[in-house]
Amino acid sequence: MLEPVEAAMGAWWLPVWTIVKVIVIAIPLIIAVAYLTYAERKVIGWMQVRIGPNRVGPLGLLQPFADVLKMLFKEIVVPSGASRALFFIAPMLSLAPALAAWAVIPFTGTLVLSNINAGLLYILAMSSLGVYGVILAGWASNSKYAFIGCLRSAAQIVSYEIAMGFALVGVLMAANSLNLRDIVAGQEGGAAYWYIWPLLPLFVVYLVAGIAETNRHPFDMAEGESEIVAGFHVEYSGIAFALFFLAEYMNMILISALATVMFLGGWLSPFPILNDVSVFGAHPFGDGMLWMVIKWAAILLVFLWIRATFPRYRYDQIMRLGWKVFIPVTLVWIVFIGAMMQTRYAGMFH
Amino acid sequence: MSFQSFTFYAFAAILVIAALRVVTTRNPVHAALWLVLSFFSAAGIWILLEAEFLAIALVLVYVGAVMVLFLFVVMMLDVNFEGLRQHFRSYLPVAAVVGVLVLFEMALVIIGSRVGSAVTAPPSPTGSNTSALGRLLYVEYVYPFEIAAVVLLVAIVAAIALTHRKRRAVKHQDPSRQVKVRAADRVRLVRLPSEHPPG
Q1: Contact between A121 and B60 using a beta-carbon 8 Å cutoff
Q2: Helix, strand, coil proportions of chain B in percent (round to 5)?
Q3: Rounded distance between C-alpha atoms, residue B186 and residue A78, angstroms
Q4: Are the C-beta atoms of A139 and A109 separated by less than 8 Å?
Q5: Are residues B33 and A86, on separate chains, in Cβ contact within 8 Å?
Q6: What is the pLDDT of residues A266-303, one digit of tens each?
Q7: What distance in Å separates the CA atoms of residue A148 and residue A231, rounded to the nearest whole number?
Q8: CB-CB under 8 Å, A316 with B60
Q9: Contact A235/A143 with Cβ under 8 angstroms?
Q10: Are A136 and A300 in contact (CB under 8 A)?
Q11: Which residues of A are less than 8 Å from B131 in CB distance?
């Protein structure tokens, strides 16, 4: 169907077609972010015996769009003495890596933008770039609150990245591959074969480090309303602030997608028997997007649940947890996996 | 021009401009950020050369970790760069010698590759050099690799030992004792009769 277009564009076909695919991934993601903010307000509302947003549209379903419109029409105030160019680059720098990481996330066995072999490394590299947006926002704002927020956040993200990286090392040892599709393929055979069971401590470390990496509650030292107003984005208003918001929620979805792929069997159905259920010739309950989305939603619910449950950590406690608890746990478990792989239980992994 | 060569020239142009701005810009934070951009463009060029592991390692290690710490330090320092510029003339001869040497070596490499004697990377058979590099590092060169790692570890331990040599007024916290604390240990409720009876 597209061959005539392909022939007409020649060498430029590949980049143009790739951009089309990028848009097809990015637009649903942004809508998912919009409804994640809605879900967050509703779920936390219910947990606190409130109703949550219910005025805009039926059940408040149009609330995210009302918020976006409000943000768009607000003035962007640039503080006096701010480094103007960096002030505007910072929100873009925090959003871009969050979007770029999606290039290698496999949605199903065949649906992936770029099936590269070093996928896991690429994800690590991209998630380590997100800290620049926060650092620059804090520095460029020329405000003490923002600067303190950015320093806290930089130290926190750099610390938790190590534990997160070690958790991923465990996964790549178990799967014997850095390719995200091969990692999911290694968990074939139902819920009992998922890596969450042999790698349970790493899964917990990954999830908690993921919350810390996205600066979410209870690790939101970078914002800390009661201590430093709003931390690194205190000087931002309007759509520039909305970009930080978007990046945070995009990163949440990314963390849940990665946890799904690496520990929860990705798009694989937990019960292989469901692959045989046929509805009008199709297999709606078998392996596919359905299970992927259900698993994302479950992990995102845990994110929201934790936010509604725990009080904020103290700064030195965060550092202690990252360096003195998580890193030793991951190191011990990696050695343990390495030892197990030399025994007759090696079949547990792949 | 194919898309690949277009990408190469785009990355190369950004790399050269960013590298120039690193040394010409006056603000140290801006200089560090230009350096980040030049690392990033270099990684892009390496990906075009199908050296994806090196490219990602460059982004992961230098952009993601080293430069973050750099920025961290540079942002908090109050360096007087005008003062540093005063010695420009006295450093010029040494800098010129080093510059000429570097230029000479680069020219050697370029001329060597034209003649065809320079070492070029053989195209990898599987299309993935990550596993090939891993095998080389951890099987063939495992002892040099381990020794390098131990040297780094010793450097870290030495740096920490040097900074902690003279610190006396450190307030150490014991989290297990903090957790064990009960309200009765800290607060004592005392019933006092009021001095002026109500009424």
Answers
A1: yes
A2: 75, 0, 25
A3: 47
A4: no
A5: yes
A6: 888 888 777 777 777 677 777 778 888 889 899 999 99
A7: 7
A8: no
A9: yes
A10: no
A11: 117
Ramachandran region, residue A52 (left: φ > 0; alpha: ψ -120 to 50; beta: rest): left
pLDDT tens string B3-19: 778 888 999 999 999 99
Give this prediction's pTM.
0.83
Cross-chain Cβ contact B3/A121 below 8 Å: no
Task: List the single residue in A with minimal CA-CA distance to B175.
Answer: A317
CA dist., res. A199 & res. A173, Å (int): 11
* Angle at A245 (CA atoms; ends A239, A250), nearest 5 degrees: 120
**Sign of the four-CA dihedral A276, A277, A283, A287:** negative
Shortest distance, CA A65 to any CA of chain B (angstroms): 34
Chain A residues within an 8 Å CB radius of B75: 135, 139, 147
Residue among A12, A116, A154 whose CB faces B68 most closely: A154
Q: Which residue is listed with tokens 């957790």?
A: B179
Q: Are B68 and A127 in contact (CB under 8 A)?
A: no
CA distance B172 to A17: 59
B25 residue type, one letter: T
Task: List the helix and strand counts (H, then E) for chain B.
Answer: 10, 0
| B128/A135 Cβ within 8 A | no
Dihedral over Cα of B190, B191, B194, B199: its sign: positive
- To the nearest whole Å, the CA of B105 is away from the closest chain A CA by 32
Structure tokens at B2: 């194919």
- Phi first, then psi, for residue A287 (nearest 5°) are -55, 135
